[in-house]
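Exercise: predict the fold of this chain.
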Amino acid sequence: MIHQATFLFISGGEIAFILFIAVMVFGADKLPEIAKGLGKGMRTLKDATNDIKQEITKTAENHGVDTSITKDVKEELDKVKEDLEDFTGSVKRKF
């Protein structure tokens, strides 16, 4: 059984095909500019999301809403994520 590496449920061959089409459509000289623009856009989106989260938390704290439950939920989710990664890591090593 051959195990292929995947990224976001896309195999290596599919990524290569997508890159080939991107080079054919945009040209090799335009790809770095496109990647730079996408990176800036993703950073802007992340910053905006963090600003919204901070504003919501600040407003909730000003109005006396208990925000400690979100921290508890995040800690529990992190624990589950670690346990799942430990389990899937051992499964991946067996193949």
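Check your answer against the key: The radius of gyration is 21 Å.
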